[in-house]
């Protein structure tokens, strides 16, 4: 298959591109500078500028672009978070309507769209989006897919938890205190903390891309949700370190502002759509996912 990949320079983009090429697929990378290799095409999503003709009949468009949410959300940075996701998705959706053969269009999305702190409530793809900044971003982000859907493309929004991989920035940040012997739960630890292994994230993206029956929102999280305490204890065990230095919620709120709630809030999300279409996880538990990340 021929994939067009936005966000190919990020951690997930690089990992997905490597896997696709290794499995015989063709990958065209969208870049915002002059192309330096034959597999690159220049675009300017802020202006909605992408030459459909340069893509030469792709099968799948994948958008992984977006500013990092793991920093304080100042008014200026809120705008960047939103626009970096909406403009890229909208540009790809517009291009999809111009192609003779309608490609599938997949965009990364976020579990944060369901809301901030939902306790033990089970979240599936049929659950309503919640309230708050990230929920509003997800509404706009996924809403930008609509022109492509209306034109006949199959579209999917990949609502992904924290991806666990040895070089994943979030995982490196999470594991650093444990490597120093200073690790512990975040806040109360009772909050459900949606994660997935890098291997299963890549496999899930390919599953969605290759199966015409999969569309709409798709949760990419462990099928056995873990609490933050279970996650941190499993990480400590895998690293042979203690799990005795909890990070107080008040400290996280002071340091991270509103973003702290993405770590302290509970989201018990299940990958219902993946499993109902035949997807099986290589790493279905937090213990196996962490082992895979450290391998």
From TrEMBL:
Coiled coil (residue ranges): none
Domain of life: Bacteria
NAD-dependent epimerase/dehydratase domain location: 4-102
SUPFAM superfamilies in alphabetical order: NAD(P)-binding Rossmann-fold domains (SSF51735)
Residues annotated as domain DUF1731: 247-292
InterPro entries: DUF1731 (IPR013549), Epimerase_deHydtase (IPR001509), NAD(P)-bd_dom_sf (IPR036291), SDR39U1 (IPR010099)
Alphabetical list of PANTHER family matching this protein: EPIMERASE FAMILY PROTEIN SDR39U1, SUGAR NUCLEOTIDE EPIMERASE RELATED
Family of this protein: Belongs to the NAD(P)-dependent epimerase/dehydratase family. SDR39U1 subfamily.
Protein name in UniProt: TIGR01777 family protein
Organism expressing this protein natively: Kribbella speibonae
